[in-house]
Amino acid sequence: MLDSEVLSLADDNKGKILIVDDQPLNIKILHPLFHQEFDVYMATGGKQAIEVCQKVKPDVILLDIEMPGMSGLQVCEEIKNNPITANAAVVFVTAHFDEELEVKGFQLGAVDFIHKPINSIITTTRVKNQFLLKRQSDILRAIALLDSLTGLANRRQFERSLPESWRHCIRHNKPLSLVMLDVDFFKRYNDTYGHQEGDNCLRSVAQAIYGIAMRPYDLVARYGGEEFVCILPDTDSEGAVSIAQKMVQAVQALAIEHTDSSISSTVTISAGVATILPTLDETWEQVLKEADMQLYEAKAAGRNQVKGIAL
User: Fold this and answer.
1) Three-state DSSP class for 206?
2) Rounded to whole angstroms, how far apart are CA atoms 78 and 69?
3) Residues of the chain where predicted confidence (pLDDT) is lower than 70
4) For position 10, what pLDDT does the model report?
5) How far is CA 112 from the centre of its chain?
6) 155-310 — its CATH code?
7) How far apart are CA 248 and CA 246, in angstroms?
8) In what order do the strands lie in the sheet with 89-94?
9) The domain 2-144 is classified under which CATH number: 3.40.50.300, 3.10.25.10, 3.40.50.2300, 3.30.1360.20?
């Protein structure tokens, strides 16, 4: 769950630094300053830097401004325009004191400038400060995307993640599935057992659902109230329906008493699944709407079941 990610960020003090310079000698000067406290990665050109950055997602990037082919300013602009790498702290390294250049760098999203020749104390202090600021920002960002009751992603995180998954599936020509889930007769449960027990119920249901979608690129979120949603990239209709059925079974296996349910003596959920092969001509709103309609069909058909559609 996302709350475990927050704890991981807080506990893991070792960060990642990417050093980018077309002169290997400069990399050799910087590397010894950080290799004991950080995982250090290196690149000798702009395109390579972007590839490494997307792969390892560094906390801090020490970026030479003047490089052949793709300048440091161009690299910074591309990094900041990519949601995957935008949160990295870019520190420019330059041999020149150029006020206009520094203004341009800050406008592109850099957080600091370090001037050559390298002073080891100044450089390490500034980089460590930027790492700590970035790590604190990561923690705050994770908390802002967390549902405080269940520990799942919240709706805001879901609405940020779905377009990213949509674009990923377009690039790789893969299907995308959405699962909408809802606790059956939850209002009756609250009326019978009280809101505190209702909260405990939602936490247990959230944990059961989360335990089924275990791939790192799946996302389970609380959509609102007693409703949950799951993003399943690279998952066809058959696979998504199977996952949804396992979620329904996992909640039933909790055996949470629900004496006021019309269909079971325990808490159950219903699920709607929609699968699509995303294209540039379509929008993700369509598949979300269809998943919600399938959830309605599952409830109309008797609840505690899954309905799905391949678009």
Assistant:
1) helix
2) 14
3) 1-13
4) 47
5) 26
6) 3.30.70.270
7) 5
8) 39-43, 16-20, 60-64, 89-94, 112-115
9) 3.40.50.2300
Instruction: Output the pLDDT for position 263.
Output: 92
Q: CA dist 164 to 32, 122, 219, 227, 232, Å? A: 37, 38, 12, 22, 12
pLDDT (0 to 100) of residue 1: 55
Catalytic residues: 226
- Are 78 and 50 spatial neighbours (Cβ–Cβ below 8 Å)? yes
Q: Is 262 exposed, middle or buried (CB count within 10 Å of its CB: 0-12, 13-18, 19+)? A: exposed
- Give every CB contact of residue 217 below 8 A, 6+ residues apart in sequence: 165, 168, 233, 234
Q: How far is CA 266 from the centre of its chain?
A: 33
Q: Where are the domains of the chain?
A: 2-144, 155-310
Angle at 150 between CA 146 and CA 154, to 5 degrees: 35
Contacts for 123 with CB less than 8 Å, ≥ 6 apart: 30, 33, 114
Q: Where are the beta strands (DSSP E) in the chain?
A: 16-20, 39-43, 60-64, 89-94, 112-115, 176-183, 219-224, 227-233, 269-276, 306-310
Q: What percent of the chain has pLDDT over 90?
A: 60
The C-alpha torsion from 238 through 242 and 247 to 249, rounded to 10°, is 140
What does the pLDDT read at residue 13?
Answer: 63
* Residue 93 backbone phi and psi in degrees, to 5: -115, 125
Rounded to two decimals, the pTM is 0.66
Cβ-based neighbours of 110, under 8 Å, separated by 6 or more: 63, 76, 90, 91, 92
What pLDDT digit, counting tens, does each position of 269-301 carry?
Answer: 999 999 999 988 888 888 899 999 999 999 999
**Do residues 209 and 243 touch, judged by C-beta distance below 8 A?**
no
Q: In sequence order, what are the residues at sequence separation of 6 or more whose Cβ sits closer than 8 angstroms to the Cβ of residue 223?
A: 155, 158, 180, 229
Q: Specify the pLDDT at position 143.
A: 81
Strands 269-276 vs 306-310: parallel, antiparallel or unpaired: parallel
